[in-house]
Amino acid sequence: MRYGAFVPSGGDGSRVGVLCEDDTVLDLAALHAAEPVPWPELLVAANLDRLLAAARPVWREVHGWLADTLADPDRSARHRHPVASVTPVLPFTVADYVDFFACEQHAVNAARIFRPNDEPLAPNWRHLPVGYHGRAATVRGSGSPVRRPNGQRGPGDYGPTRALDFEAELGFVIGGASTPGEPVTMEHAADHLFGLVLLNDWSARDIQFWETRPLGPLLGKAFATSISSWVTPWEALNSARVPPPARDPEPLPYLRGGADLGLNLALRVRLNGELISSPPGDALYWTAPQMIAHLTSGGATLRPGDLLGSGTLSGPAPDQLGSLLELTKHGREPLTLADGSELGYLRDGDELVITADAPAFGGGRLELGEVRGRILPAR
User: Which residues belong to the active site?
Assistant: First the structure.
């Protein structure tokens, strides 16, 4: 099951729903009208904001109650909508957005493209989860179009990006607030992990590379970030958890212990329906609990609805690269598509879709949904 917010056919407002394995959406407001729903102040709402403001014990109880409810078809069938008949909306209000750079393979690949004669990783990379603050206001739900951005592409050169890229990532959805000025330790970091979305950190590479040094990306990343419309709860991912990779050097004590676990996920990236990459979800050097522990170690506060991006996921094989930057060597080695055309970076009209699945409890695979976006021309 996955949680989200949707507008029913003919409806005039959004409500919380649960996407079921049979491609129906359980309408919690409609269910509550027929029988008492526990925690109505959290579940009979316009989106997931109130639920995110609760705590892990409540999320665990909600997850168990929903599993029992869905196991009884007679109880819930009358309150389900075909998923094709509803309109998903952004599932929660994004409070803050931080995008990390946590996959070593991606970091090495990018460095080798631009600095082939230098050390591929910065001296700090294996010591801490590197990240930057993004624009929460430009995070959008799956299916929202993406307008090609304008910006400076070099000295005296302003115009639409010529190097529009995708980045296949995971998005960790944060719930529960932390105390201002008090770090969230590794032992308690997982208490703030409400769930997971798929994330596409759209990137204008020419704008990004011109503006990045010395402070980091701004316009090259600020125009759009897309997330899947349905949030997979953290409890549903128990069977997908795997040990993290070996770290050298060993992380500092504040980045050790607790639930330092990665996720065994399989991602797929399709361009106009054609599979172009299959990044592995277990490629992260730094895990979500470490991102939380590091982010809050200096005094930053977590808020319900915070979104932490993993950074691009890339594996060692050519068909496991999570961006066109890597797949085409910054456009120098274009992809040859099934129709015979060549692709360096994204074109107007292209539609990019990222999907994923994970091992499910009891066997089989758990679908994690999709994040979809089509490119519109610059204005």
Answer: 106
